[in-house]
Amino acid sequence: MNDSWIITNGLVIDTEPQPTVLGDVDVLVTEGRIAAVGPDLRAEGAEEIDATGMIVLPGFVDSHRHTWQAAIRAVAPDTTLDGYVSHVLGELAPRFGPDDVREGIAAGARECLNGGITTLLDWSHVQFTPEHTDAAVDALTASGIRAVFGFCHGGADPGLMAPEGRRVRERLAGGLVTMALAAFGPEFGDLDRAVREWRLARELDVPVSVHMGGQGPESAERGLAFLDAHGFLGPRTTYIHANHYTDEQLKRIAGSGGSVSVSPFSEMALAMGYPVTGRARALGVPASLSADAVTSGPGDMFAMMRAAHAMERGRPDGAGLGFTTRDALRMATIEGAEVVGLADVTGSLKVGKQADLQLLRTGTPSMSGLRDPIGAVVLNADTAAVDTVLVAGRAVKRAGRPVTG
Q1: In the predicted model, what is the mean pLDDT of residues 224-248?
Q2: CATH code for the domain defined by 5-58+349-402
Q3: Distance between CA 289 and CA 332 in Å, rounded?
Q4: Which pLDDT score is estimated for 189?
Q5: Buried b vs exposed e over 19-55: b needs ≥16 C-beta within 10 Å?
Q6: What's the pLDDT at 1?
Q7: What angle do CA 59, 15, 205 make, to 5 degrees?
Q8: What's the whole-number mean pLDDT along residues 49-61?
Q9: In angstroms, rounded to a whole number, what is the distance separating the alpha carbons of residues 258 and 240?
Q10: Distance (Å, rounded) from C-alpha 151 to C-alpha 247?
């Protein structure tokens, strides 16, 4: 399948180091990578994509999504975190067999690609058996999305966590799907399990993604103290729902090289505290956006950018009025890539990176007449505007339709 393209006549937006409108320039993709961005590029052997009337920009990065839950969308729209944990994780998840996991993740990955999300951290806490794990990895691999598989062992035998983690790490040595350790502890699950999870991440040399800071100030303080006491407070760690950390605690996370994943819809809907977006970024903590769970909220990045923008600017006493649509787009692209450890691979149009791109139609009713392209992407676009999506130079959506085969 073709992975060399010349994209012409589009309005190009890059995101590194900051979102910038480059104007009407070409984007040359050669062997799946960004080869050049500029006017009147030569493109021998490349297939042309005419982007007239479209915006060309990097694909979005979702830094935390329980992708299997696409199979039970909107099952918990009006609950709290405790209700979600009890119903979705306690009652529904155990009923999922490997085939259910495969179908759920396949559907969730298709949803992402359809909406311009080209990179996904799949926080997979439905790994009850090796067969469940293989089904999840198979679905991600077959989908064509770039993914970080967040392995969270959920089997009855805790002794299988390490060998299963090693097996997954070996299986994901190369390709579009890589690995992270999705840790339950220390704020969920018992502390002995948490120690095993974090030590396994060190052994496997993979990042850690962990739900910390979303269950109240006392829990946030205890969890951070636990990491500090065991020597786990360090880089390549993403704190999900980090809303209850104080500024001093966020400074410690920044100093350790950590990052945060913000899920604006689910955090507000499930009463996990006000999103930490602006506070974290102001204190030097890279911040990304994520859909979290479509059981309780929308699954597209346009909705996440709008929510983050509105909630930050709506902070009391005008504290968030410095947050702009450019900040929201950065969080959804290059800053998200930084958080999931792929900033050297994706998230911008920098020459040499893999070609993870999307083309947005500007002729839709919600986009026509735009004056500020970045503002329009963040505040006015939706999944109906996504015309074409490339992952590593491979077309996964063209002319508004998924590409199969």
Answers
A1: 97
A2: 2.30.40.10
A3: 6
A4: 83
A5: beebeebbbbbbebbbbbbeeebebeebeebebebbb
A6: 65
A7: 70
A8: 98
A9: 11
A10: 30
| The listed CATH number (3.20.20.450, 3.40.50.300, 3.20.20.140, 1.20.58.1370) that belongs to domain 60-339 | 3.20.20.140
Mean pLDDT of the chain: 97
Query: CATH 2.30.40.10 in the chain, residues?
Result: 5-58+349-402
Is the distance from CB of 120 to CB of 177 less than 8 angstroms?
no
Amino acid occupying residue 63:
S
pTM equals 0.98
Tokens 């006000």 — which residue?
274
| Exposure of 399 in the CB half-sphere (CA atoms within 13 A) | 2
Question: What DSSP string runs through 231-265?
Answer: T---SSEEEET-TT--HHHHHHHHHHT-EEEE-HH
Percent of the chain with pLDDT over 70: 100
Residue 235 has what pLDDT?
A: 97
- For the chain, where do the domains classified as CATH 3.20.20.140 start and end? 60-339
Q: Which two tokens stand for residue 154?
A: 């959920």
Interior angle at CA 368, CA 363 and CA 370, nearest 5 = 130
Q: Which amino acid is at 121?
A: L
- Give the tokens for residue 227: 């990491």
